[in-house]
DNA sequence: GCATTGATGTGATATAGGTCACAAATTTTC
DNA sequence: GAAAATTTGTGACCTATATCACATCAATGC
């Protein structure tokens, strides 16, 4: 399992064995059951999680009670409530498990210590954050310029693996359309 | 003008005079006229710009020819086509000036050099990127969970300064609604 | 292995917001 | 400062998507 984390980092910065051990020593391992929450609205957000097994979703519940999925996270993805985690605020999002899951998680303090001890980790996190930004901007443009069908097609292209692991209902919620509309498309 | 850049950085990391001179030496100054493009679709994206004067917008033109505003940038904001800039690709966005503008701009190479020479600048960029991420995620949730009126109200709250500098037509394009609908809202 | 819960499909109907068309007001340009 | 360009408002009409209501089917828990 450690290997997944190591490969993820080494896609961006090479690491010696010792360096990777140092990295690893700043993380903890978490195991979670399907339906289990790892972040809850109104509660603190102590960790970012790197998923090594399973599938999670982060979602926002609006004032009318409707839930909107911000992100899915499967193996090799990072997930947290950014606003809560980085600004030390209570969560506005929820994160729960769609499948039994295992993560390596790290606190903000530990992340900062790690970056101080191993400069290239700061570069790594900057690269990840930058890639995240680009993806988010594309998602915004997609929401603004594409209709439901186009967004669904794009989703299939971008995340072919997810299609088979996630009920359509949730994909609809991620795409910002109703499950009925998606149902009528997908045929 | 330099002072604006310095204050922007010092909101996150303190700088000595020498350090700031080092920072500054990696930037160039650009002056642009209203209507001038500083990034064009299909062209390279050599710089990120820090705006010290004026107002710009970045926008995407979809396949049907409709334009969607991704971002405005006034004094103290950063702007570029991220995908083009960080991945060394051609632009998918356009950026032009809504008012005569002045920026400090930097290449990717120079940014990397600067971070290598002055570690805290990497921390600075990471912080900015993180804040950007949070803002983008909120915008996505806003697009998914709020109707036109709520999004407009939120825009006014978030960017009260911009309301008076930007025609409603463009605000509509930023909010992902038609100008007619916005006109009927604003009352 | 049955019972509960969740997922999916589909009809009928409602509606927010888009589009088109025109006129008036305002701003910009030379 | 007149002409051109841009912005804004508003009516009439259209459409994509939401909502509600069932029915069926599949998955999961004990």
Automatic annotation (TrEMBL), chains A, B:
This is Crp/Fnr family transcriptional regulator. It comes from the Bacteria. Coiled coil: none annotated. SUPFAM superfamilies: cAMP-binding domain-like. Gene3D superfamilies: Jelly Rolls. InterPro entries: cNMP-bd_dom, cNMP-bd_dom_sf, RmlC-like_jellyroll. Residues 31-116 form the Cyclic nucleotide-binding domain. Pfam families: cNMP_binding.
């Amino acid at each position: 399992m450690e290997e997944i984390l190591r490969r993820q980092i080494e896609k961006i910065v090479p690491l010696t064995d010792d360096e990777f051990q140092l990295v690893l020593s700043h993380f903890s391992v978490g195991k979670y059951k399907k339906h289990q929450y790892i972040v809850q609205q109104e509660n603190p957000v102590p960790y970012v999680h790197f998923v090594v097994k399973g599938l999670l979703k982060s979602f926002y519940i609006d004032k009318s009670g409707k839930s909107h999925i911000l992100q899915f996270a499967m193996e090799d993805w990072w997930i947290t409530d950014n606003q809560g985690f980085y600004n030390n605020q209570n969560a506005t999002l929820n994160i729960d498990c769609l499948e039994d899951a295992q993560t390596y998680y790290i606190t903000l303090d530990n992340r900062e210590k790690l970056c101080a001890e191993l400069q290239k980790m700061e570069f790594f996190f900057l690269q990840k954050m930058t890639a995240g930004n680009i993806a988010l901007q594309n998602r915004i443009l997609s929401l603004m310029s594409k209709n439901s069908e186009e967004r669904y097609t794009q989703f299939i292209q971008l995340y072919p693996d997810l299609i088979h692991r996630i009920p359509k209902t949730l994909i609809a919620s991620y795409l910002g359309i109703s499950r009925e509309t998606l149902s009528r498309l997908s045929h």
